[in-house]
Every structure is written in C-alpha cells, then in structure tokens.
Amino acid sequence: MNIQAKNWLHNVEPRFKDILQTLMTHHFTGSISNQTRLMLQAQLKLNAKELALALLPIAETISIAPVSQFYVGAIVMDIDGNFYMGANLEIKNEALFHAVHAEQTAISHAWQAGAKGIQSLAISAVPCGHCRQFITELGLPPSAQIHVPNRPSYTIGDLMNDPFDSKDFKALTSEQSIFANQSQQLQLSSDDPLVQATVTEANLSYAPYSGTHAAVTLLTQSGQIFHGRYAENAAFNPSLLPMQCAFSALARAKINFDSIERVILVESSHGKISLRNASENALQAMCNANLEHYVATPSA
Question: Lowest CB count within 10 Å: 4, 11, 48, 189, which one?
C-alpha cells in the first residue's frame, strides 16, 4: 500500500505558503519545536490556537483513508509548546478496528517524542466518542483546550462530562496516565541492537489493564527505523496497538509501506493477552515483511 502522493503544503492558505516553504522540507516529519512555533506565530501574526488551526491542512496530508476517504489531521501542543502532527490511518480491505484516529496518532507522536503532557489539541473535525474516551486516559489538566475549525474551543470536560475511566473499573487499581507512566523492567537475551531497542520501547508502553507491555520496530530498506508503543484504554477498544502506532510514524515520514524490510514485536510474557495475531494481520495487509516475535520477561 502506497502513501498518497500529497505535498505537505497542499491546501494551505496561499498567504502562509512562502513562510512555511522552508519548514516543509523532505526531512519534515510533522513536529515543530517551541522555538519554531513562536517564530511562525510572529511571522504569521497568529496566536498558538490560530497557528495550529492554520496548519491542520498540513497534518491532513499524512492521512491514509482508503475506506472512508475522510482525511483528518490533528496537532498536539505539549506542555513545553512543541507541536506534534498526526492523521487518521486506515488499512485497505481490513477490519475497521485496525483504523487509527488522528487524535491518537498526534498524541502517540508527542508521547513517543518524550512529551510530558498536553496543553491543547487541534483537530479537523469534532472528536468522535472513541477519541473522547481515548483522551480521558491522558490525565489532561482541566484547562487543556480542544480546538476545531469554525467551532468554539472545548475542554475534555465539555465533551465528556461523566467519563468512564479506570477509577470506575473496580477490578483495576491503576491511577497512572499515559504521560505519567512508569517504565517497566522487561528483559530479553539478544545481541541484536534492534531487538533491544524494541525492548526499551516496550518498557515505555502503557498497559495497566492487560499487563501486555509491548512495542513494534520497523526497519526500512534505506535503514530508517520507526517504533510504535502499545497504549491501552480503560474501555479497551480505543487502545492503540503498537503496529498501528509504528505505521503512523512511517506515514508521517511519507515512506511507502512496501519499503519495510524488517518488523519486530516484543511483548511481555506476563500479559493477559497477546498482540501477535493482530500485529501479523495488520502487517500482511501492508507489506510482505515477516513478523519477528519476541517475548520479554520482567526482571526479578
């Protein structure tokens, strides 16, 4: 499956294109530092909200939507003022549970880049119930804003005034959030640096309900490496699988899926579920690479 051949600046307002042209190089992968964001705000005479909304057409170019043909972009601003883009991802001819929503990919982009929290989220369309549930797991402050074009800004409290979360799930005791998650202590005997890098990512995954801490690593023919971590949700179905998370990272780099050469899944031996079958199913729909599956054990 090939990524749509869209330019980063496709559909951006003409008055912004000259200023953004130098930013949108072939190395651009959808993140904008706080320093660059402030520079763009000064040059374009926009505040942070206005800039995020103006840049949504750029995020939309990452979208892969062969089923819906509905291209959604999202931009997270973390607590340090950095922007992280994401877009929806669908897998052709496969079940809809494989789809990843734009909010999820932007949030996972920020999370995997080391963000410690989120202060705002701009989205092309009002968040669906699936994404509202996913967002509740982030531990957002009450002041965190959700911006949608041509609509008033919301807080997650406006969208989910009585949410279901881990505190309502009496069998669970986790009070963590994705951004406040503690590193696990998984170990795996291997001399392969790519396998060990995947173990490191799995240790940073978020799986308080199943205990199946997991991560995926993709290696392309050109030697580029992309990781995806597992992110669970109290309602289970809005959970973000590591394979889809890694696919989203590949899409942000605008790299064709048929360039994937090697795929590694590492998951905990102590989890209640396995992500192997779901990962293989998604992988087979995207490319011809085989899944390398490893099971890591928690340290004593």
Answer: 189
Whether 139 contacts 231, CB under 8 Å: no
Query: What is the DSSP-derived secondary structure letter of residue 115?
Result: -
60 given a catalytic annotation: no
Buried b or exposed e, range 86-109, using 16+ CB within 10 angstroms:
bbbbbbeebeeebbbbbbbbbbbb
User: Which among 13, 60, 94, 103 is annotated as catalytic?
Assistant: 103
* Long-range Cβ contacts of 161-166 (<8 Å, 24+ apart): 163/132, 163/133, 163/136, 164/133, 164/136, 164/234, 164/235, 165/136, 165/137, 165/234, 166/137, 166/208, 166/209, 166/234
* CA atoms of 13 and 23, how far apart (whole Å): 15
E strand or H helix at 32: strand 31-32
Give tens-digit pLDDT for 241-268: 999 999 999 999 999 999 999 999 999 9
HSE-up of 176 (CA within 13 Å, CB side)? 18
The domains of the chain, with CATH numbers, are 14-159 (3.40.140.10), 178-298 (3.40.140.10)
Structure confidence at residue 172 (pLDDT): 53
The answer to whether the beta carbons of residues 250 and 218 sit under 8 Å apart is yes
Confidence of residue 6 (pLDDT cuts 50, 70, 90): low
In whole angstroms, what is the distance from residue 196 CA to residue 191 CA?
8
Phi, then psi, of 107 in degrees rounded to 5:
-65, -45
Q: Scanning the structure block, which residue is given the tokens 């999820």?
A: 104
Please report how the helices 242-252 and 276-286 are oriented relative to each other, as an axis angle in degrees rounded to 10.
30
Whether pLDDT at 5 is above 50? no
Q: What's the pTM value of the predicted model, to 2 decimals?
A: 0.93
| Bridge-based pairing state of the strands 186-187 and 118-123 | unpaired
